[in-house]
Amino acid sequence: MVTHGKFAKILFTVALAAVPSMPADRLSAQDARTPKIERVGAVYVKGNKNVATQTILSMIRTLPGTEYNPGTLYDDITILLESGLLKSVRPREERTMGGVVVTFHVMEYPNVIAGVDIRHARHTNRVEILEILENICEGMPMAPTLNKNACFKIQDYLKRKGRCWANVSLEEGAFETDKRVIFNISEGPIVRVRSIKFLGGGQLAGPKDLLKQIDSTAQTENDGGVYNGALIDNDVHRLQQYFIDRGFRSAQVERELIFSDDLSRVEINFHIHEGRRQRIMAINIVGARTFTAGDLQRIVQTQPGEFLSTGRLKADECHLAEFFRKHGLEAEITAEVFEVPDHPEFVQIHYEVNQLGLAQKDAVGNEVTGVPPALVAPITKKAPRIFIVLPVIVVNDDGTITRETAPAPDIAEPAAGNPFDQPDNLPGAVKEAYASGDEVRLGQALASLKEPSRHGGTRAQQDLYVSLLLHAVTEARQPLARMGAMRALKGYEDPRAAKALVKAYLEPPPFSPDMPSKIKIQTLSSLANTRTDAARELLLLVANQPPPAPDCVKEERMRCNDQRLAALRGLASFQGPDIVDALVKMLRDEKSVAVRNRAQMTLKTITGKNLPLTDR
């Protein structure tokens, strides 16, 4: 008796026998062409004591059951090292019947964190700061790289709160042998926007209309107007796009920041150069196969004789694409703007039509209405070029400056050691602030030191105050302490004051990337108040320095411009034909609209003449 199961087995055997057999060489060739996928059989971690295995596995993608990929394994190693929790990672692979067994041999840092402390954060939520300190807590490995990166994260957090002068350093935790992580936080003041001005322009819109285009607000009775650097940079982009969209294709917008002496207020100047507003001379529609140019011209809203409007061009692209879809066709529309030879006031508009065929339909038969995105060629970024600010200069004993090709020697008279190492000799306010370790208090105390020789003091007091300020302005590792000393020195008539300020400008301080430029700007401002020949010469050198290369990174260009603008503001306190000649040359040749505008304002202050800007 044949059961149902046996009958099915007989049929399957007969059918299999009827199938012609494939030659063995063809089978082996097919197997060779088919790539063999390897799977991860198991993952182990060895060498870890303080970092949990689950913590390490949670950061990687090479896990049991996943496809084995050497590229993914390399990425996992990079992620583990960048986490800062491990000193080294070495993988080992072993192929078994159950898959590839991957073992991560790791080496941890020798010490673990015994405690974390945050000092001098008087106005900041400590809980929020602790949330930033990921993997930095008691019992975790002492990872110096992770601790240093946390300093930058805390700084960014404080800057978002309006404390753009914030500085965070490590008192402990910068070395593997440290036991604790101690963050010394200098919050600095909350910077508020004192005023917003628009310099230049005027053809298209006035200040009231331009204020509607930006997100920054000045301080009013009901509005704090907290300064946000990223917001200001975005406003520059928005203003420039506002003019470009309305036919001013060569428009330039740059910002200028002028901080108050106590660093708590900032004036924001938006320098605007509108350029020529262009009109449309002709419109061409090319590439359409199904419809004539005349048919499509009736769809386009842009007309010859009108001012160029990029917003209207984008609307025309949508209208033309929708016209094709209504007729069951799919097309990409690209509006291009071309200059008219010998007629810079006019442009030509070309609408490029790329018909893709019939309109696509979805699962239920409806036409897909979305327009496929235009293909954009990848942009090749050039490596940033390093910009050297100034030639080497030396301040002579008589206050003049000599250019040299050799490295400049120290130009400020060195004090006998560090005067802060003798606390008994320090003035009362400076002594208390220095002992507290509070950078904000120390900066305020140094700024309050008035020159003894001008206020009834003794020669010994004069030498002590000058030595304190000279050391702070060139050696202090706290930015606010340096700038406090600069504020004091700008009111000193002692010739050593200007020499120390020049040295402070030429020697970059060891701070985060944006802080040295800020300190240099405050140095130039203080130098202008000394009204010495050394200050005059340095300000003229900085104002005349060539602009950064076009392929230089944006941040470097902005820092260079900020220093040139500060130097130009300082030159308004000086006289001389060489200064006038340099300013006139800037009006003629300078490409930066902010530098040109500031040069014009300084020239008017010096000569009383308001020379016109060259239209570039």
Q: Mind sketching the topology for me?
A:
Blueprint: H1 4-18, H2 24-33, E1 40-46, H3 53-57, H4 70-82, E2 86-96, E3 99-108, E4 115-119, H5 126-132, H6 144-160, E5 167-172, E6 180-186, E7 192-200, H7 207-211, H8 229-244, E8 252-259, E9 265-273, E10 279-286, H9 293-297, H10 310-326, E11 329-340, E12 343-358, E13 393-395, E14 401-403, H11 428-436, H12 439-447, H13 459-475, H14 479-489, H15 495-506, H16 515-530, H17 533-544, H18 554-571, H19 577-589, H20 593-607
How many structurally independent domains? 5
Structural class: alpha/beta
Oligomeric state: single chain
Could you give the order of strands across the largest sheet?
A: 1-3-2
Number of strands: 14
Task: Report the CATH architecture of the largest domain.
Answer: Alpha Horseshoe
Uncertain stretches of 5 or more adjacent residues: 1-19, 361-395, 403-415
Report helical residue fraction.
25-40%
- What overall geometry do the principal axes of the alpha carbons give? flat
Give the integer mean of the pLDDT values. 82
Biggest sheet, in brief?
A: 3 strands, mixed
Output the CATH class name of the largest domain.
Mainly Alpha
CATH third-level topology of the largest domain: Leucine-rich Repeat Variant
Task: Please give the alpha-carbon distance between the first and last residues.
Answer: 103 Å
Question: Strand percentage, roughly?
Answer: 15-25%
The number of helical elements comes to 20
Report Rg.
Answer: 34 Å
